[in-house]
Write a structure and sequence with these properties.
Length: about 240
């Protein structure tokens, strides 16, 4: 359930585009056609699915304070967290270079259509954001980091696929002249972000119920305490009357 919850949360609730607006440059530039959007989205899923677990391993066994304790007690006090950005970006650049080679070899048409935006995945803030969010949220296991990376990639893929499909249909619509192009795209993106915000209630129902249960238990304890105090007072009054 923990994997499933994190997976859906990273897709719908903490969507890279609609929640924190990361990766907007390629999201807007490569979303004119569904075919190119699918290719770039698939590349983003692959890069996030590989780099987030790798960066989790680097963070756990190299970068965190005390992470080098596995080398010996004399290394337990070392703190290499200042190298996080450099190491994360190096990992991302390596994976993006691998994706670029594969796409150029097996899908040259897609490689030509993506153009400069394929190597620019290396500096896409959504890719780096996935690793940084993994680090800041202290995801505990390698499996959960893989789930988070795949879910974040699928969320970005759904966002660019949806806007690409809408932009293809908008070409045949009578959009007011001042809003044509990026204007109407920004408006649609905002409306889609509002729609994705509605998924925020998916994982809060159980929390509300648990809070209600805790509140009811606290009320019962208060009532029991009051009854005990009243019983003590009555007993003291009765004892006093007997003595008199």
């Amino acid at each position: 359930m923990e994997h499933l919850e994190l997976f859906f949360k990273s897709i719908f609730i903490d969507n890279m585009v609609f929640s924190v607006f990361l990766g907007m440059c390629s999201y807007l530039a490569v979303s004119k056609k569904v075919s190119t959007a699918v290719g770039l989205g698939a590349a983003v899923i692959f890069v996030l699915a590989v780099t987030v677990p790798i960066n989790w391993l680097l963070d756990q066994y190299l970068l965190q304070p005390g992470a080098l304790s596995w080398l010996g007690a004399e290394y337990a006090d070392y703190d290499l967290s200042f190298l996080s950005f450099i190491m994360f970006i190096a990992t991302i650049a390596t994976m993006v270079q691998l994706v670029e080679i594969i796409v150029e070899k097996f899908a040259p048409a897609l490689y030509n259509s993506l153009g400069i935006f394929l190597p620019l995945i290396a500096v896409n803030c959504a890719i780096l954001g996935g690793s940084l969010f993994m680090q800041s949220r202290e995801i505990p296991t390698l499996g959960l980091s893989l789930t988070y990376g795949v879910g974040s990639g699928i969320g970005w893929f759904l966002a660019i696929l949806a806007i690409a499909a809408i932009r293809e249909k908008i070409r045949y619509s009578s959009v007011p002249a001042p809003l044509r192009g990026l204007g109407i795209t920004f408006i649609i993106t905002g409306l889609m972000a509002i729609g994705f915000m509605s998924f925020g209630g998916m994982l809060t129902g159980g929390d509300d119920e648990s809070k209600k249960e805790e509140t009811s238990k606290a009320d019962v304890k208060i009532d029991d305490k009051k009854e005990a105090e009243e019983g003590t007072k009555e007993l003291a009054t009765t004892t006093k009357e007997i003595i008199e």
